[in-house]
Amino acid sequence: MKKLLGQSLQQPKDISIINQISAAATASARTTITQNFSMALSAIGELQGLLPVNSPESETVKEIEKGLTELRQYGDKDDVSSAPIMNKFRRMIEKVKSGQGAIAEAVKTAEDGYEIFNDVAKQYNAIADWCGLPQVPKILLKK
After folding, report:
1. Is 124 helix (H, G, I), strand (E, B) or coil?
2. Under 8 Å CB-to-CB from 19, ≥6 apart: which residues?
3. Contact 127, 79 (CB under 8 A)
């Protein structure tokens, strides 16, 4: 027995590494990010409802909504992370969190404005996390 054990330890072993990407995992990740885009668009639609029609702020939100709709169709991390609309989306969130501008004022005065806005920011963070963009600090999202 010792002899067999000794021989087995001395013989070189072939190691095979198989690299397979699970199609199910890829499909699941794609479904999740599509849901994040859909939830972000829904939340942005609610935020849009807090703003005066045809105001500059309303136009900014519409532009973000249009850009996210286009990005949702591609679903590529590199396209999303390099899209200028994502920077505009983040800057809008940061501006509102600092209390600046008409969007921040609309959020303050609406009955459930903070809830709507926090939903917008959480969805931005989910998309940003997926594609490697900076996130809005979560501590700023609790009020």
Report:
1. helix
2. none
3. no
Q: Which two tokens stand for residue 142?
A: 């609790």
Taking phi over 0 as left and psi of -120 to 50 as alpha, with beta for the rest, 62 belongs to alpha
| 122 in Cβ contact with 141 (< 8 Å) | yes
pTM, to two decimals: 0.75
Place of tokens 């999303």: 80
Taking only the tens place, the pLDDT of each residue in 121-140 is 999 999 999 999 999 887 76
The tokens of 99 are what?
């209390």
Length of the chain: 143
Q: Which ranges of the chain would DSSP assign to H, the alpha helix?
A: 2-10, 23-49, 56-74, 77-82, 84-97, 101-109, 113-131
